[in-house]
Amino acid sequence: MFLISLTKPTSVQQEAVCRKGSSLGFNFSSAGSSLNAPPLPAAAEEEGWWNCDHERIKVGYGKKAYEATKNLLASWGQFQLPWAQVDSATPIKPGSNVCVTANVFGLWTAVPLQVVYKQEGCWQRDAEQEQQQHHKQQQGQHRQQETDIASNNRKRSWFGSRKQQRHGRQMSYAHACLHTHYLAGEERFKVEWDKTDDSVWYDIYTYSRPQHPLAFLGYPVVRVLQAQFRQQSMRAVARSAAQYTVDDSLDDSTRKRVENFEAGFVSTANGRGRV
Question: Which of 48, 50, 228, 273 is the most buried (most CB within 10 A)?
Fold first, then answer.
């Protein structure tokens, strides 16, 4: 049973939750299937139905934005929300236990997961295939619209008769649910630098389903909370990446002037500023 408490779980309680979950292993058999998703590999599809969610947001341009976002994900910056958190010191390496604490309706929960992979390297793919894959993800929501767009894409070529090859660099990792978690499934976090247009993207991919009776009963609420996390996480990462990129671009003299201005503003606000 996952932990439910009126107060935020202590580090000792979080360790106990992870220790129990880790001793029992994953609560599904296809851990690691998010590595090249979407789509999910056949092994995951054969295991049963999943709710798959995939969202991404552009967080900036160039190497500085990529490195800033990568560093943020390395310290679980996407999980430093007022109501959902992971200890920023949690190691990101296969086999590391992860405890997610969340406050919902005044109650705190603590659930165990484990990092299943971390990878970084170069990537390359056809832009046309990427577009078709994206449209396929929207199937069921905009079926007719997707058919029209796909038809238009087949008639259109990139740069005349040549296919455009998109390429870049990425870092990603995923954690999967252990036994005693109220859900089964996996969540992947990725930062991708597309060197074709120099854009940098933060990407979240999740496949999950209820595992505990309480999760089945409250699944509509769970789905709302999952969507809320994705949206708030993307805003937090985009905001932090932009702030870091701007700050890192300042020279020493400009940064000192900004710091002095902020110090003066704070002093004035406290009634201690000099006239």
Answer: 50
CB 83 within 8 A of CB 108: no
Cα 180 to Cα 193: distance, rounded to the nearest angstrom: 36
* Tokens at 12, concatenated: 């000792």
pLDDT tens, 6-53? 999 999 999 999 999 999 999 999 999 999 999 999 999 999 999 999
Instruction: Give the list of residues 6+ apart from residue 234 with CB closer than 8 angstroms, or none.
Output: 55, 56, 57, 202, 204
DSSP three-state, residue 72: helix
- Nearest partner of 180 among 14, 32, 8, judged by Cα: 14
**pTM value?**
0.80
Report how far residue 141's alpha carbon sits from residue 254's, in angstroms, rounded to the nearest whole number.
49
User: Which pair of structure tokens corresponds to residue 267?
Assistant: 């002093």
- Does the 3-120+171-269 domain belong in CATH 3.30.530.20? yes
Q: Which amino acid, residue 39?
A: P
Tens digit of each residue's pLDDT (9 = 90 or more) over 133-162: 555 555 544 444 444 444 445 444 434 444
One-letter identity of residue 197:
D
